[in-house]
Structures
1.
Amino acid sequence: MLKKGASLVGLGQKYGIKHRKKFTQVHAILKTKRKCPDCGSFRFGRHAVGIWRCKKCGFKVAGTAYDVSI
Ligand SMILES: [Zn+2]
């Protein structure tokens, strides 16, 4: 869950508090700095839904939509 006083990201004033909180939570997980399992670079992130890639070495791995693994 979100910490008390944490600011919400995206969506502005739309969609209601429940969905904005959920979006913030998912967004934080999506944008977490990740280390490439192959070269150790931090430029590892989601390339497309379910596809995670390292921008440095091109290492590709399948994952879930918003996280590398469940
Ligand atoms: Zn890499």
2.
Amino acid sequence: MLADSGGCGTANIPFFRPFIGEEEEEAVLRVLRSGWLTTAGEALAFEREFAERLSRAKPLAAAAVSSATGGLHLALEALDLQAGDVALIPTYTFASTAETAIHTGAEAAFIDCAEDSFLLDTEALERTARRLSEGKTAYEAGGPSGRPRVVIPVHFGGLCCDMKAVNETARRYGMAVVEDAAHAFPAYSETGEPAGALGDAGVFSFYATKTITTGEGGMVVSRDNDLIKRVALLRCHGIDRPVWNRYTGPAASWYYEVVQAGYKYNLPDILAAIGRVQLRRADDLLKKRKRIAARYDAAFSASPFFSIPPSTAGDARHLYPLRLNPPLAAVRGDCVKKLQEWGIGVSVHFIPLHTMPYYRKRYGTGYGGFPRAEDAYSRVISLPIWPGMTDSQVERVIASVFKLI
Ligand SMILES: Cc1ncc(COP(=O)(O)O)c(C=O)c1O
């Protein structure tokens, strides 16, 4: 098992190491030897198996894509987001969540975190939606204006947002809901429903550091079959027949028609084959991450220097965002540097989008606008949490964090 060779002792502990084994290697070889490398049977099977897993009581359709970024873009295009529309987005997220809305011609209005949470504040969501629907700017201090058309809740770190509240606000203001579930496979709501299947569409990431991986990749899911059909059309240049159908279907033909200006966001079979194996591993990988998180929780909850991340039973535990309390919080940057010097790979999730130069210029936002997100960002350090970590590696991370004191 490649992933188990991470080592311990004084060797570096990476921030993440994917759990890739012989089954994934064999799956890739099978595709390489088949002579068909791009999107075809493996991608279709991956879509079907992923959809089945999330379907539960209500059936759901899925479209495999080249990344969650591409998937978000396609879902928003399929919902016909356009100039004059506003997408409501947590500021505490990665660039993709907002940039994909901007690419459709819409604007992005940022929402702060809830109290003691990395997730979006549903009361602020309601306030911002109301302001926009009254023709005002998103915030008292300014920001974008336009028709509130979509909300994109982010299940940060694998923790499912309060989707009941999000969906209620969305319904009240006529907004669609596209869940950014990049971190959330498999994650569940408080009522045990799968994250990503709770809005109009959900988008998952299979980037190298995600809970299951294809290296790069993503999946769009929806209970609306027509929406998935539009996503599938846009994913391949807006061509009415997918390439494998043209070359291998019963009416094999050189003829095709472009019915819409689309994109090139398909997932090749080489990657889909890895995804199918990872999908089968998902529950085992989750169990391993949960075990590490439980050990971290036990160690850090006993100390006044740290705040452990909020969690629920359905948390996918994609990240372990530990918050430093005063006085350590004031020297977070130095703490990151020290941990790296000691061979512990750490990261920071996220730098709030409203502080980024592009959005500061576009919307006049900046520090002071979203205090809870800014506070979380200023104190957070994401610790390594990957399935192949050995007990001694976990203990070394804990000892190193305590050494910061
Ligand atoms: C919250 C969030 N959304 C979307 C993405 C984009 O995922 P991808 O790299 O698959 O495009 C990421 C990537 O890290 C993310 O963290």
